[in-house]
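Assess the record.
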Amino acid sequence: MPSDTLTTSTDAPTTTTPSSLRANPWLTLIAVAFGLFMVGLDGSVVSIANPEIGRDLNASTADLQWVTNSYLLALAAALILGGKLGDRFGRRTFYLVGVAGFTAASVAIGLSGSITGVIVFRAFQGFFGALLMPNTLGMLRAVFPPKKFGMAVGIWAMVSSVSTALGPIVGGLLVQHVDWESVFYINAPIGVVAIAFSAVVLPQSKNTAAADEKFDIAGVVLLALGLLAVVFGVVKGETWGWTSGGTLGAMTAGVLLLLVFGWYETRVASPLLPMRLFRNPALTIGTVITALNFFVLLGVIFFVMLYLQNVRGFSPVEAGVRTLPLSLASVVASPLGAALTGRFGPRLTMPLGMALQAIACFTMLSWGAHSSYTTMWPPFIALGLGVGMVMASSSDAIVGNAPVKDGGVAGGLQATALQIGGALGTSVLISLITSRVGATLTDELTSAGVPAGAASGLAEAKDAVAMGAAPVSAEMPTQLKSAVVEGSHQAFMNGVHTSVLVAGVLCVLGALMAVTGVRRAPEH
């Protein structure tokens, strides 16, 4: 009977028995795509469900932020651990555990009935997502030969990008026609299919040389605490203030812990994250660009949904459909980016993807409170093309440059960079919007015709305005109400313009980093 086990004790590609279903790399790719799609969809679908969750469960804006942030914190803290566990004990095993746990946590969120329950089970979702995500890339690295690995990563990146971009459309349909709980229940059938199919076709792969190594528990603790502190400081920076003692203290403590972690990993015999991986410039820069890629994507999607629904007045479904060009562009860009990376290396595709995202951000500077859709779809296409291209090239640069035995760890590193970038993007860009709204709201209300006294009083509603909502009431005269809406929306757009300007500049810097730092195509 053919063996189901792949053993990976050297850097050479592994092979499987041809007669077994578990030997087919393309079936492996299909199997991991189920779990990847589920996690990617859930990462962005929540943004469109948040308003309904808030209304149904009487949740504050801070509560809704924690619906996103608890997931990101748990995910970021455990991703490298998930990859390391897969490398050592079996990537198939931990992928299946991750899918099962993620599915169960999704159902629990829908059944919880309270905002506290939603936040807690979102954290469980994040933890189980951290077990499955890095092992998707680890398994692909183990079963695909080097010449085909680039195309496999391109398809992997396409699934990840499309699932993230489809989140608002799927979420809009479910929220509008069913309820917000269905946004999470939809993971149940996907998870069941993923488990059944994966159990049949996925081969077991692991680094057999690691079986005799001592597990790096101290490294796990240092990395988890460091990442938690950094991400916690970032997500609380908006409410505490970026220069407050709490924010600076949390972020400083996190950076110090990560520095200690890096120092410790160079001195332990069996490190959780081998520092030797960063000797490869393509891998190191690929990690930074991955973080920047999702900084822009998730941050922009977050405020675009606020703009479309709260400023333009579109329903969730209408808002989701209007972002469809982003999804379609991602479908095209990921395999195209993989093909170009395979031929020319990431030195071409990384900066090209970053440049497209910069163009998207700078084009959004022309948006106003009453812009036509003809001004919206071009940056959506540019953003989708850029994100898909960077996903393919950076994934290949990170995982493709790592030894096969470290495939899970490299996948965890890539996924960690992705999630930390997403957390930073959501928090930083929304914080910029909030800050700009606070600075300009009174003046914009006055310019729109709101009396000075009333404008000063409405300045207290800056948090609502930063979410795109105008602080109007039924008792207001029609003329005053119109003026408040006009002034509030203009203040919100001021914040959006500040955010996209910062994001665009970061994309330009990322493009320059890729051009100057990546000297050659990644060598497998």
